[in-house]
Amino acid sequence: MHVPAALRQFAAGQRTLAVELAEPGTLRLTLERVREHYPGVVERALDEQGHPRPHVNLFVDGQSVRAGAALGLSTPVGAGSEVWILPAVSGG
User: Taking a C-beta distance cutoff of 8 angstroms, is the pair 36, 89 a contact?
Assistant: First the structure.
């Protein structure tokens, strides 16, 4: 999982986190595994109801979990998948 600079303080300064899953799972399961070791990362990416915060974008293998026919936190994550947490960028 790729961690943005703003959240690295909650991930022991790491840019990427290795997440071990016993079998292919979902983004929700992946985030649960991260929460076990780095709870501050997930608490800032998800709201109190467990949904992605409006200012946070989540991607699995380059695909937004919100766009198009996205599956949200039910998006499949397999061995070798890349998960990104990115802050939303706005401007004009």
Answer: no
Reported CATH class of domain 5-87: alpha beta
Domain segments of the chain: what residues? 5-87
pLDDT per residue as tens digits for the range 14-71: 999 999 887 889 999 999 999 999 999 999 999 999 999 999 999 999 999 987 667 8
Given a contact cutoff of 8 angstroms between Cβ atoms, the answer to whether 85 and 16 are in contact is no
What are the tens digits of pLDDT across the range 76-87? Answer: 999 899 999 998
Tokens of 4: 């943005």
- Provide the Cα torsion 44, 37, 48, 50; round to 10°: 100
Output the six-digit token pair for 78: 């397999």
b/e sequence 6-32, b meaning 16+ C-beta within 10 Å: ebeebbeeeeebebeeeeebbbebbbe
For residue 75, give the amino acid letter.
T
